[in-house]
Amino acid sequence: MKVGLVVHAGRDASVAAARRASQTLAEHGAEVVVADGAIPDEESPTDPAGVATLVDPDAFAHGLDLAVSFGGDGTFLRAAHLCRDADVPVLGVNLGRLGFLAEVEHEEVAAALRTVVTDGFAVESRATLEVRAHAPDGTLLASGWALNEVALEKTARQRLLLMDVHVDQTMFAKVPADALIVATSTGSTAYALSAGGPIVSPRVPATLVVPVAPHTLFDRTVVAALDEEIRVDLVADQAPAVVSCDGREPVLLEPGGWVSVRGDGRPVRLARVGALDFYALVRRKFGLR
Fold first, then answer.
1. Most buried of 87, 96, 146, 259 (most Cβ within 10 A)?
2. C-alpha closest to that of 187 among 109, 259, 261, 132
3. pLDDT tens across 102-150, in order?
4. Does 73 qualify as catalytic in the annotation?
């Protein structure tokens, strides 16, 4: 088995956990590689865990059977963006705060990895959003995808964004707000939740449209089907906006431009060493009684 590690390099606990995991995997006969820029080690820059090989991120997913992320949901998302197009499953180890995407808590890592190497793992598919940003003249500015959400946010602090929101080619509403989030069910417990959106089971195939601090009487989340296109037009004569997918590499969108989002992208594959109880996870993460 070939296993790749993606590590939050700025968190000592993540680096330490990844080093221990590398040794555990090697002891059970697995080949281990680490995404470059992950585990810092000045004394051994080409072999950061003592048993692993450092690889360029562009080649990270090549030949992998499994990727393991060490950090919070942000680290998991980085691993997902490295691995989706190669169909490599990602197992998340939570060393962050909430960690809805990560299945394994840090104290369970050794046992989980032994299970992975000896008994294998199950795979769960999660829908993604395909995104295209267009300039006012229709030129394609950028394309990408998101596992959690696409965010359209203002650049002028003192001004609102004025957006025309279309659902499946029908004009739905003119939304004045600080931002607009288009999220998957997986992303319902991320940025969308902090904006007042609903908690949605990841088993529900849906796209959520969530306004952030809207200045309108209609301030509800719209839940669309995955194959219904969401188009957000940035109304002319205002400051530009920025568009990002899962918080990555924002793109400047000038007034008159638009973003189209469709929830039928290639899925991300999540590795599971046990059954997911989503509602128990929500209860535990939020301390519900």
1. 146
2. 261
3. 889 888 899 999 999 999 999 999 999 999 999 999 999 999 999 999 9
4. yes
- What backbone torsions phi and psi does residue 135 show, to the nearest 5 degrees? -75, 165
Domain 128-266 architecture: Sandwich (2.60)
Q: What is the DSSP letter of 151?
A: E
DSSP E strand boundaries for 59-215: 66-71, 90-94, 104-105, 122-134, 140-146, 149-154, 161-167, 170-177, 179-184, 206-212
d(CA 161, CA 181): 12
- 51 exposure class (CB count in 10 Å sphere: 0-12, 13-18, 19+): middle
Q: Which residue has the tokens 């359209």?
A: 152
**Which of 47, 73, 227, 233 is labelled catalytic?**
73
Give residue limits of the domains in the chain: 2-121+273-286, 128-266
> How many other C-beta atoms can be found within 10 angstroms of the C-beta atom of residue 4?
28
| Among the four given CATH numbers 1.10.3720.10, 2.60.40.780, 3.40.50.10330, 3.40.190.170, the one describing domain 2-121+273-286 | 3.40.50.10330
DSSP H or E stretch at residue 203: none
